[in-house]
């Protein structure tokens, strides 16, 4: 069963998984305030394309493949200019009804799957926001840019700075005399 491109604010993730539904929707940046605070030019961000495809995971647990595509801008850590970050993320999930159930799944069986406590009213925007934030680079930077040249604030040349007196330069000699 497939649903067309609609705007879903919540989904019954267990029904999506058991019925093998395929949901296509969009999520806007206004629905993701935490993400909005991490990027620049958020007013120009187009809605993210989201696909949720119900499936069966390991041990017959309900599962889904979450696919997100879109683009955001961050500030380059080298040159401080905007840099486009492509979001193209596909993550398989297993859904359980409680933390206790999640803890009973052997680690070797869930290593390819993200195990989360599912809900009959799962907030799609919050789910998508978390996955986008996890996909953002910690230190975004252009491949071909260089850090801005370091200029001293007082206008002194590097030569003048290196010739400053060093108050502890002769400390070793003073300590040897005593």
TrEMBL record:
User: One Pfam family, short name please?
Assistant: YceD
* UniProt keywords, alphabetically: Ribosome biogenesis
What segment(s) does the record annotate as region Disordered? 143-178
Q: What InterPro entries does UniProt report for this protein, alphabetically?
A: YceD, YceD_bac
Q: Which domain of life is it from?
A: Bacteria
Task of the protein: Plays a role in synthesis, processing and/or stability of 23S rRNA.
Q: Which family does it belong to?
A: Belongs to the DUF177 domain family.
**What is the protein's given name?**
Large ribosomal RNA subunit accumulation protein YceD
